[in-house]
Amino acid sequence: MSEAMHEVIIIGGGPAGLSAAAYAIRKRLDALVISPGLGGRTNRRLELPWVDDYKVLIGEEMVSRFRSQIEYLDFMRVRSKVKEIVPRDEGGFRVVLNDGKEYLTKIVLLTTGAVGEMLNVPGEAEFEMKGLCYSTVTYAPLFIDRTAVVVGDGCQALRAVAELQRIASHVTLIAPTHGQLDMQLARNLAAERNITIMDSYEVVEIKGDDFVRSVVVRKDGQTSEIRTDAIFIEKGLKANSELVAHLVDLDEQGFVKVDEMNRTSYPGIYAAGDVTTAYSDQVLISMGEGAKAILSIYDELLGIC
Ligand SMILES: Cc1cc2nc3c(=O)[nH]c(=O)nc-3n(C[C@H](O)[C@H](O)[C@H](O)COP(=O)(O)OP(=O)(O)OC[C@H]3O[C@@H](n4cnc5c(N)ncnc54)[C@H](O)[C@@H]3O)c2cc1C
Known about the structure:
Blueprint: E1 5-11, H1 15-26, E2 31-34, H2 59-71, E3 77-78, E4 82-87, E5 93-97, E6 102-110, E7 114-116, H3 124-127, E8 132-133, H4 136-139, E9 147-151, H5 155-165, E10 170-175, H6 184-190, E11 195-199, E12 202-208, E13 212-219, E14 222-227, E15 231-233, E16 237-239, E17 269-271, H7 283-302
Parallel strand pairs: 1-2, 1-6, 2-3, 6-17, 8-15, 9-10, 9-15, 10-11
Antiparallel strand pairs: 4-5, 5-6, 7-16, 12-13, 13-14
Bound molecules: flavin-adenine dinucleotide (FAD).
């Protein structure tokens, strides 16, 4: 075990963790970033046959500026995954890595993000980011005069359909169950001429060539195929909050509850970005939250309440 007690260990190297690290450098904090890689979910971008180059600013570019700042400070980062966070009787925490190494810290900042819930059907893995994606909010603006399929039956899916409806030529919602289809928003969407809602249809397969071309669905034993330019899986996000689940308060979906200073319910544990209940799921928001968390941690280390 490394006996040095860090002031803060940032777990996760996505937008929230990177901006937190950049602000920690500015404050000359003794900070350590532990993450298998840097960039988080922004490391991958959706490829579409009609898009050669992204004219809009995407997360990847913003994050790369912060990433390069952290990359050359190799004393500040450990390329690994955290297995366990153990509170110490003497104060602070022991952070245990998958490879058995351990680090001590006064404060933990959790920025482990969230992952989109998968469909687990043939073709999903093959076409991921080749027309199949889990983030409508990021890519909807690219669908002018294009068709799109959204899969999901909750608020997230309805919001995705609403966003695409203003841009795409046609949007099909494939709802695996009736879910939230009684909501007023669902009724409003059903009345739009460029929306089809397929209630209680199961996605069986995603098909394509170099990119997604169609989705095979089934209802009452009957299968049909819907041609589309892209498919968005909007079944919900799953927070990567297992590391602190035994210590801090989570909401019903497993997201870490934080206050306006990014404090969790456990003293000394902070959280920022997609793993939290803060309204996020975008790079800019996660970066702002990560920066805010470090400023808040800085205050705690100074003894300012
Ligand atoms: C396909 C896709 C494309 C997107 N594109 C954009 C975009 O262009 N613009 C935009 O604004 N938003 C985009 N988003 C949303 C955006 O990526 C997220 O909101 C943002 O990345 C969240 O940042 P985060 O730091 O909270 O988490 P993440 O980016 O998820 O990063 C989490 C980090 O924690 C690490 N980690 C997880 N578990 C552990 C552990 N046990 N130990 C150590 N490290 C761990 C991970 O390796 C990762 O580095 C996109 C999302 C998706 C799914």
